[in-house]
Amino acid sequence: xxxxxxxxxxxxxxxxxxxxxxxxxxxxxxxxxxxxxxxxxxxxxxxxxxxxxxxxxxxxxxxxxxxxxxxxxxxxxxxxxxxxxxxxxxxxxxxxxxxxxxxxxxxxxxxxxxxxxxxxxxxxxxxxxxxxxxxxxxxxxxxxxxxxxxxxxxxxxxxxxxxxx
Length: 165
Description:
20% of the residues lie in helices and 28% in strands. The protein has three helices and ten strands; from the N terminus they run E-H-E-H-E-E-E-E-E-H-E-E-E. It has helices at residues 30-41, 49-58, 126-136; strands at 23-27, 44-45, 66-69, 72-75, 78-82, 99-104, 118-119, 139-146, 149-155, 161-164. The strands form three sheets. A four-stranded mixed beta sheet has the order 1-6-5-2, with helices on one face. Strands 7-10-9-8 form a four-stranded mixed beta sheet, with helices on one face. Strand 8 (139-146) and strand 9 form a beta hairpin. The protein is flat, with a radius of gyration of 22 Å.
């Protein structure tokens, strides 16, 4: 007589671990973009100068990859902003939470964004926020009124679209 093996419990399904992420935005001038978005979101421009100085001192990075920004060394082709309340690595200045990274690319923006930010100051503050953002260098493209809500489509100084709800 052949014995049928007892069914085994299925392997437990692993619980997914949240993935750390940042939104990377291609641009012509990462430092100008970082300054605009830091002002727009009340974020902090990341300070990577300690890391840069350490890498320069070790000969691990050439000085040509850096510029001066805000009175300190910064990467020539990268700049980032982070939420001021989020944690960051003290050693590198890199944010560990909500952040935007701007990277220099050689080509100009040519088509509509496939991804954009929505800012939500609230309907009673929308007009004032649009005015404030315009003062920082944004442009208002159009007002939208639909059954699902109202918002203003804007563009940052390099033409990247975003919405103010």
